[in-house]
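Repro case for the chain-ordering regression, as requested:
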Amino acid sequence: MRVLVLGGDGFCGWPTSLYLSEQGHEVTILDNLSRRKIDVDLEVGSLTPITPVGDRLRAWRQVSGREVGFIDLDLATEYHQLTSVLLDRRPEAIVHFAEQRAAPYSMRSPATKRYTVDNNVRATHNLLAALVETGIDAAIAHLGTMGVYGYGWSGSAPIPEGYLTVKVPTPDGELEREILHPANPGSVYHMTKTLDQLLFAFYAKNDGLRITDLHQGIVWGTQTDQTAADERLINRFDYDGDYGTVLNRFLMQAAIGHPLTVHGTGRQTRAFIHIKDTVRCVDIAIRNPPKAGERPMVLNQVTETHRVIDLAKLVADTTGSEIAYLPNPRLEAEENELAVRNDHFLALGLRPTTLSEGLLTEVKEVAAKYADRIDARKIISRSVWRAGMPCAVDLVPAQQSA
Amino acid sequence: MRVLVLGGDGFCGWPTSLYLSEQGHEVTILDNLSRRKIDVDLEVGSLTPITPVGDRLRAWRQVSGREVGFIDLDLATEYHQLTSVLLDRRPEAIVHFAEQRAAPYSMRSPATKRYTVDNNVRATHNLLAALVETGIDAAIAHLGTMGVYGYGWSGSAPIPEGYLTVKVPTPDGELEREILHPANPGSVYHMTKTLDQLLFAFYAKNDGLRITDLHQGIVWGTQTDQTAADERLINRFDYDGDYGTVLNRFLMQAAIGHPLTVHGTGRQTRAFIHIKDTVRCVDIAIRNPPKAGERPMVLNQVTETHRVIDLAKLVADTTGSEIAYLPNPRLEAEENELAVRNDHFLALGLRPTTLSEGLLTEVKEVAAKYADRIDARKIISRSVWRAGMPCAVDLVPAQQSA
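-- result from build under test --
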């Protein structure tokens, strides 16, 4: 298939682009390199030494013999360039990762709240409007988030895949209705993904666009078979307080002797997926799109759930790290259960890559290899959900205090 | 109270600003005059000869002895000016009309779809972010729409005020949950109001903002006691196919001998409110805001429901006009019932201004007085919900064919 990967230079986008290329798809990346530029603003960088996108693509050509295209394009503002690309490339599938994706960053300041909304809503809506205008019938696979559902809303019922059957009382008895699961976002970032859902529902209904929304859990791991094939292809690894994700951060902290940073009680249960499964799920999704006229297909892109504290203890036990309990910058319940349905991906052939010592060790080894690139002052989360909430001071890694 | 009226130069905003001023509030209008500028693009104008905003404000000062302030400001793009205004004026209430509000215009072209989303979402989000940043504790009253609910979704149950109690099945039996009524928008415009609802829910929860969302029906009528006090204060009257609203258009068509344009079967039932009640409802809303920490208060700003065809027949019967059945540019059911709860406003003292011959005649007389300002080529709706849908040719008013 001819595939566009929007946001194809990012943490999920890059390994997805290479995986899709390896599967024989004709891949073109559209990216404005915003993720790299935000690193400049935050005065931080990927733990791994990612190379410029031009070097990445040359290396991939040398390693695989395959071409991946690249177009520098801001989806939120460069609408007409987008329509030109669509008419020129005539994609059969579009993978849409092109949104600001960190909850802490989205709560950091008025400017980052506004950037997250302005960028994410306009990028998604421009894509939808451009498909309607050009008549290009490409299936969209969009990266959503488990965070649209919130936590603990439906009691002991596992979170369904997007839609929920409820009973509505009427004077003539109860009606059964299938509704989009009520939105319970926990940050401005998560909120933008709930807005996306309403955009998708409308354009699927009004214009027959074919859309799959992938409600993904927290991604862990760094490398895939493709990104590991050459050091110039290495994937990014975010370790900082805004963009780093919880399990990868624990493994990075263990690698440098920094206490494992648990916010609040750690009794929040979260959904997880390994980066190797992310890329497979996206391929499965674009091969199995909904039909025109159908509502958006929602798939929970999740393979397992864990309590944050259990992950911290697992890493602490195997590495001898300490655990530091820090104030929680988020406004959320101290504790929640979480059960998630992921029947669709299992039925479509996904064999989950779950937590294993080998994979944990691999991440820790990546972190250890590049430990000298870590700025320890960037580890603590400084973004708080409301002005004036407490946040921790810097904790000193063991090797520096020794 | 110190009140900002965002979009206070528009069809609802202007009479609301004057009414609030008359009630003794200290009113400042923020408006970028976008509604007047869209008229320039559409090559059409208000049926009534509205005066420039400066003339309006001078006339109001002469007539009432009261000052209404005006600031030319684009909420979607001039965030920092907005925070300055908030810190300078320290409003206790903010009325938010500042959104592109015509469904046909929002479906007219890729550019108008994008403008509607980009303007409405960013204006609303900037307001919310600015209140959080400045710490100004103003109650927001936002103009939403009945169109967020869609039509015919809940069978014989009347549409509740924003929230719906449903039963959710779980392994341990049914849970009762109160949810935001599922969103069923019929156009890009209506969709933006469903996005606003999610923005409001988040900022009420995370930041304790006090927000009332007024889900308004179709407004009819032109003048209020305040706008009728001097011809320079006259309210706008949109008669064109994009911005004109159904009952006012029938009365305008009757006034010039143009067939009454019914789209589809006309058996769609819609909710209505007279402009004199709009302004009262807004005053009631800002006097009775929710408390900090409460979810957004949703009020259905509606006084009656009617089938479109019944309104056409009523106008035809009293004026001798013909009815023309035209293709429906919207993708919607041919027929729907509609019952709406409006208990809150009734409990808070609203005495509804319902359809009466006197009020219908008043609108028709306004239209007749300024009939020479009508461009008959602008009457037919040209915006269609999907490319290629049929639309009618111009119909000739009786006085021109005679």
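Ordering looks correct now. Chain A touches chain B through 51 residues (CB under 8 Å).
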